């Protein structure tokens, strides 16, 4: 991707220029620093963070951009429940986030008090991997028809998903999905309540072949995807296939040199490698056919982040003018939809 396209986006935040003298091998470097303050119980009480982005072009000037500065304020109900309030010095938006052992809630208001974004998630357990209830409203970037939706999930005693109901308020659509383990599609059909007229049935079948666990997912009687998992001494490997057994992605989990490493491949276009140390991300590498990103993290002695550095290199070979026109068209469509949408107002 040409740097001129990046500069077109960056003019919204421009605050000065600087001559290229460092990191010429990257097109953009974004540094976020966090100044953490703690209360008498050694809990976070305030976090001041600043994000600065620099864009580089060889033999040219570099635009230096300070994208945002903000302060997070923490208040605690107890050691497990707390609220974080943040006000952006750039946009003026106020964001409030509430955290509890089995729920997360966030609300973003603009300077006029309108709801920009709202999200509520309640979970099956404290690991927060299985949502029981989801409510989402997004009035800021309206390009899709599913920005205002609700989801309700039911699990069995073993934590396996049994039923999911999704309601899309923009379109009025409602969809119910039933999940079964070890049943054929014909057997599963007999267990669906007759009152449900519009639904999907997903049957998950597992079998073991040698050292490989094979999970076959059948949706409405048709194989949708297959996952093969191989457990090894220092980790595991997962391979995802479509119904025609074409490889669509893979996931590798391993331990090496004191790191827990996760490598996620999506098709042939994207590779995500994440390195963990003591449960914390310390390095991420994202590689696609258009760019490479390297993200580095630093933490204080309490284990809270103090710095995040992201370095990006673009190698998009598409026509520069086409890319700019494509981006401008997306912006125009977004503005048109925002004008036609009713915005929620907090009283």
UniProtKB/TrEMBL annotation:
The protein depicted here goes by the name DUF4595 domain-containing protein
Q: Which organism is it from?
A: Bacteroides vicugnae
Organism lineage reads as: Bacteria, Pseudomonadati, Bacteroidota, Bacteroidia, Bacteroidales
């Amino acid at each position: 991707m040409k740097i001129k396209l990046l500069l077109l986006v960056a003019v919204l935040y421009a605050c000065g220029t600087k001559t290229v003298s460092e990191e010429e091998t990257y097109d953009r470097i974004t540094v976020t620093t966090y100044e953490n303050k703690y209360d008498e119980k050694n809990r976070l009480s305030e976090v001041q963070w600043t994000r600065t982005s620099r864009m580089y072009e060889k033999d040219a000037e570099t635009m230096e951009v300070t994208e945002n500065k903000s302060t997070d304020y923490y208040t605690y109900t107890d050691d497990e429940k707390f609220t974080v309030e943040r006000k952006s010095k750039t946009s003026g938006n106020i964001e409030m986030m509430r955290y509890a052992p089995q729920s997360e809630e966030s609300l973003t208001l603009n300077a006029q008090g309108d709801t920009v974004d709202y999200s509520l998630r309640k979970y099956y357990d404290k690991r927060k991997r299985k949502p029981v209830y989801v409510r989402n409203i997004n009035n800021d970037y309206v390009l899709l028809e599913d920005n205002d939706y609700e989801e309700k999930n039911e699990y069995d005693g073993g934590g396996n998903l049994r039923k999911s109901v999704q309601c899309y308020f923009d379109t009025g659509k409602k969809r119910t999905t039933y999940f079964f383990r070890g049943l054929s599609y014909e057997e599963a059909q007999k267990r669906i309540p007759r009152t449900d007229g519009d639904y999907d049935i997903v049957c998950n079948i597992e079998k073991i072949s040698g050292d490989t666990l094979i999970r076959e997912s059948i949706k409405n009687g048709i194989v949708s995807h297959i996952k093969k998992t191989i457990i090894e001494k220092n980790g595991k490997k997962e391979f995802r296939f479509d119904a025609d057994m074409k490889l669509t992605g893979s996931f590798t989990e391993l331990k090496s040199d004191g790191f827990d490493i996760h490598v996620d491949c999506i098709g042939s276009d994207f590779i995500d490698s994440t390195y963990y140390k003591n449960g914390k991300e310390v390095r991420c590498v994202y590689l696609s056919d258009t760019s490479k990103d390297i993200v580095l993290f630093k933490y204080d002695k309490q284990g809270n982040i103090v710095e995040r550095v992201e370095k990006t290199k673009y190698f998009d070979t598409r026509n520069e003018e086409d890319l700019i026109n494509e981006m401008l068209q997306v912006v125009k469509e977004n503005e048109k939809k925002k004008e036609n949408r009713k915005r929620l107002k907090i009283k």
